[in-house]
Amino acid sequence: MKREFAPATYPGLKGRAVLNTGGAKGIGYAMAQSFARHGAHLLLMDMDGAALVEAAAKLRAQFPEVRVETHSGSVTDEADVEAACAACEGAFGSIDILLTNAGISMNRPSTALTLDEWRRAIDVNLTGTFICAQAVAKRMIAQGGGVILNTASMWGLAASPRRAAYCAAKAGVISLTETLAGEWAPHGIRVNAICPGYIRTALTDELIGNGKLDLPAIEARTPMGRMGTPEEVAEMAVYLASDAAVFITGHAHLSDGGFLARTF
Ligand SMILES: NC(=O)c1ccc[n+]([C@@H]2O[C@H](COP(=O)([O-])OP(=O)(O)OC[C@H]3O[C@@H](n4cnc5c(N)ncnc54)[C@H](O)[C@@H]3O)[C@@H](O)[C@H]2O)c1
Description:
With 264 residues, this protein is an alpha/beta fold. It has helices at 26-37, 49-62, 78-92, 115-143, 164-184, 202-209, 215-221, 230-241; strands at residues 17-21, 41-46, 68-72, 97-100, 146-151, 189-196, 252-255. The two termini are 25 Å apart.
């Protein structure tokens, strides 16, 4: 029998304040919807101002009881991140959960990868995650705890040709997650990484469109026979952020339809 996606409910998430980077689109937006469904309040930060306005309007219409604020800026800019933190605290009084979804792909043969491209992939995916985690953790330590979920990738756990900068950045995000989890556990902060496999979003649609991803090959290679949905990844985030996961910290959690498990 084919099992349909069945989201769970975590009542403890109601009223929590969530700062969600890259929240305007794709996996970040799906996470925004999942947390809003639980009654959590949202500060969406994204560098795509137009998408941010559209995402906030859709969320407010769908979840009228939830407060949705936005901050347009880049996770690579400390001042932008500080302003987003201040906006979240100003609106909701705290930052209880940080979701670092802002990220970019970088698919290019390693001999053709420019230093600028390498730096951009590391800057957005890894340094941006650190800037956000550090800024938020200072506040979480003061308030006595919180949850940080860093969106890494299955390509942070395994190698993929022509993705040197992306793989290195995402492996870095996983290592950062492990390090920060150990450092901040005494302060009541849990830090985990979410590692999606191939998920259908604007990012992957563009890569499929320009031939950098081969959809039939991905489907054939994935034991579940398909790409995942952003909602399926978001479901892992609400679980990990919930009090159902209070003993889970410092790990990378895959949602990949079995992709990495298959070695044949
Ligand atoms: N889609 C997949 O298959 C997949 C797989 C593994 C990991 N991921 C990771 O999931 C995250 C989200 O990916 P997605 O597929 O939803 O991508 P997406 O392009 O649909 O969404 C990413 C969002 O991040 C924003 N963003 C990019 N750079 C930013 C910056 N410097 N500051 C603030 N916002 C910025 C974009 O404007 C966009 O709204 C990324 O970190 C990506 O690496 C995606």
